[in-house]
Amino acid sequence: MRKKLLTLLLLPLVAISCSKDNENSDPQPNTTPKEYQVTYQVTAVNYAQARIIYRDNTGALITEENVPLPKTYSFKRTMKSADILSVGAFPSQGDASANVTCVIQLDGKTVDTKSGPGPNPQPVASYILP
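Now predict its structure.
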């Protein structure tokens, strides 16, 4: 009788100690692809054009030379966790009051903004999908 009672008392403790601890488990990245609306904006003060390097709708790096500013790129891209978005602007022949800004928007929400002042700024905005 004593063994049965002891077993009944200890069984719930064993079951609880073997259950999964959700609070301490590492979150897993979302590997299911999802389509997003991506918008890159490059604006400038006292710059007429720049070299722009960005990741397109396939994730490939694209380089365009002598792009008139301001410039907006907008496209849909299917992405999953750890995919990268980036846009950089590299103008030349500016003065001390010049400035260029790169913005990334994902589904209408700004996720990164980088600016660079002066005669040779090199701002690069980037975002890694969580």
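Strands lie at 34-45, 49-55, 61-68, 71-79, 84-90, 99-106, 109-117, 124-128.
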